[in-house]
Specification:
The structure holds 2 protein chains of 2 kinds. By secondary structure, chain A is an all-beta fold. Chain A has strands at 4-6, 9-13, 18-24, 31-37, 43-50, 55-58, 61-66, 71-76, 85-91, 101-102, 106-111. In chain A, 0% of the residues lie in helices and 54% in strands. In chain A, strands 2, 4, 5, 9, 10 and 11 form a 6-stranded mixed β-sheet that branches. Chain B contains no helices and 11 strands. Classes of the chains: A mainly beta, B mainly beta. The A-B interface holds A 30-31, 35, 40-45, 48, 88, 92, 96-105 and B 6, 32, 34, 42-46, 49, 93, 95, 97, 103-105, 107-112, 114.
């Protein structure tokens, strides 16, 4: 079946790097995503990576994909207090219609 | 960029009443929209896939008679929670895919609608 797992909580100090990890089970996933959710708000797409890529960098964000181990990570460089939010990893599984399977979300707490 | 709008953002209703939530794609057409439900401190669970001009596809365990979905146009899908009960209280989020674009990267989410049933 399709399953996505994330650690639930991460705390870092402002200015440090944050690394949020995610594992998934469906090897047929073609896209893997990172979304950010601030309190009481919807989801904001941060970045996504195609399954044939190992890495994608976008300003402070770096996504690493280990397809063999089905492991995805999101690194946020120079973490700011405004980065405090819940981060969701998601995969599209064997579907290309837009249906996504989400992890439980990782709450990132950034301390000043 | 593309925007998906949900309305209302918050709604409080009495038990037994029905509530309609709208999801609109503001600057693109969406043949497919998705409705998710999120409980506090939990992940998003897909409820159903809304297809323009046809019946919605519901996920296992989701009551289609309880959660009515209508996708009457390429820019609007509605979710009606019928005879709402306190256990239906949740955060409902829709997403829409821009039909002009290929791949699965262009999926946009609404801001969510928080339903509280008293």
């Amino acid at each position: 079946g399709e399953d996505v797992e994330q650690s639930l909580f991460l705390s870092v100090r402002e200015g440090d790097s944050s690394v949020i990890n995610c594992t998934y089970t469906d090897s047929s996933s073609t896209y893997l995503y990172w979304y950010k959710q601030e309190p009481g708000a919807g989801l904001q797409l941060l970045t996504y990576i195609f399954s044939n890529m190992d890495m994608k960098q976008d300003q402070r964000l770096t996504v690493l994909l280990n397809k063999k181990d089905k492991h995805l990570s999101l690194r946020i460089a120079d973490t700011q207090t405004g980065d405090s939010a819940i981060y969701f990893c998601a995969e599209n599984g064997s579907s290309n219609t837009g249906k996504l399977i989400f992890g439980q979300g990782t709450t990132l707490q950034v301390k000043p | 960029g593309a925007v998906v709008s949900q309305h209302p953002s918050r709604v409080i209703c009495k038990s037994g009443t029905s509530v309609k939530i709208e999801c609109r794609s503001l600057d693109f057409q969406a043949t497919t929209m998705f409705w998710y439900r999120q409980f506090p401190k939990q992940s998003l669970m897909l409820m159903a896939t809304s297809n323009e001009g046809s019946k919605a596809t519901y996920e296992q365990g989701v009551e289609k008679d309880k959660f009515l979905i209508n996708h009457a146009s390429l820019t609007l899908s509605t979710l009606t929670v019928t005879s709402a009960h306190p256990e239906d209280s949740s955060f409902y989020i829709c997403s829409a895919r821009d039909r002009r674009r290929g791949g699965a990267g262009e999926l946009f989410f609404g801001e969510g609608s928080r339903l509280t049933v008293l």
